Amino acid sequence: MAPIEILVLLADFPGLRSKERLFLAEKLDNMEELAVLSSIEGLSLFLGRTPEFPLPSKAELEERCGRRMEQMRRFGIGFTHFLSAEYPPLLREIHDPPYGIFFRGTLPDGGMPLVSMVGTRAPSGDGVSAAFSLAEDLGRHGVPVVSGLAFGIDAFSHKGNLSGGGCSVAVLACGVDILYPRGNSRLAGKLLENGGCILSEYPPGAGPLKYRFPQRNRIISGLSRSVVMVEAPEKSGALITADFALEQGRDLFVHRGSLASKRNGGGRKLFAQGAPAVASAADVFASWGRAG
Fold first, then answer.
1. In this entry, which stretches build a coiled coil (predicted)?
2. Which of 84, 157, 159, 196 shows a CA-CA span of 20 to 30 A to 146?
């Protein structure tokens, strides 16, 4: 297996698929070997295809490696990859698992079931109450809540889980040094102080580009045993997470407490299509065959 510097750099290589990054991680032993492959011709021969983007030169590799490792030291960022024992086991099972994860804080226990909670950035009062109370109830039972640290349902889900003593997990669509949106930086700090985790497949310095949010959503659902759609209009991006949950074989629920909300057309549609309604941790646990 390649040293940590190579593993981290492979996460930053443009145009490579997760399986190709893993293949290279197993084959490369040092920076010199990576530098040889950093030409289009070298990597094309090694992988059997031509990457879509130009790859960095040896000098760029060395500069990028130094900068990346310094960023990780400065922000206390860890890294785990697909073949590592600490890589989240449920995430390993999805169709397109991330090659690696950058994280701050403590990764959740691989044997602990997680619950993802998602929804609109502009919730109603019912949506806020529903998100906070369910997440708090899950926290009291020792179950971490996974969400995206966005304003609205995400933020109140994290806050409720922290209030209940849960070690909440935030999945970002940017580097974990950025803490997007900035308005939730204090919430992110509390999450870390209370044993939680902030993670991303994107390296430090990567910005919150629009296309990264749907990619991020597959990780939110992929980490969890169950996904709860709290409140979302019919065209909400949160429904992408619901689609991923179904593709990944996760339990998909809607929150009973916000079904009547005018801002929950997407949730009602999922309910009409068969998604069960829940309002408490006990409701979720019942689907697992677990007593509260």
1. none
2. 84
